[in-house]
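Reply to thread "Modeling small-molecule complexes from scratch"

Following up on the discussion above, here's a worked example others can learn from. I took a protein sequence and the SMILES for zinc ion and predicted the complex. Inputs first:
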Amino acid sequence: MKQRLLDDGIVLMRRFCEVNSLAVPEVNIRSTAEWPFGVCAYYRPTKIEVCLEKCAHIGVAGRSWSFPGNTVDRTPYGVIQHELGHHVDVMHSTQTARYRGDFSVKLRREAGEPPISGYCPDDGEWFAELFRVFVTNPDLLRIIRPATYERLRSRFDPVVADSWEAVLSGAPDRTKAACSKKVGDVLRRHATPQFAAMADSER
Ligand SMILES: [Zn+2]
């Protein structure tokens, strides 16, 4: 299962790079025997290093929420797009430090939107997590982080064209419900008084 998620993730990453004329990062898959790190993957220009055993399975219970295209995705599918985010950050920055650059710092400042997942120790990770959703489920990012989406959309073409519901159609019910709630919260917040009155009159 993890191998399949990794293969699909690499296919998506390559397609995204192709469509957007980006240099394709090299992907190295490591075994736990050659992996002394706590993390499941990392990026160093211009390589993605990933340890499959350390990546998550699809989350079906408890605090595990990973699913391809969800706001949380630590499966190999999402991990590859997160690392692609670091690659894009580095490739579009004028100043870089290891796997981060000023591109992500500037974009976060301009968009001014909150993190999309619980993993956000700095601007580089804020960016990589939002970028992951831009690649795996752009429709969802468009709705719940519109300012970031617009800025990314002005520079990159997404390759996934499905609605967010279609992307998550195979997800556990609680995952779909959690995303529905996020989408509903945003739509309610953005509803104008006129729109609300119109919706009322149509009931
Ligand atoms: Zn990262």
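What I'd highlight from this example: Residues 82, 86, 125, 128 surround zinc ion (CB under 6 Å). The chain has one domain: 2-201. Questions welcome below.
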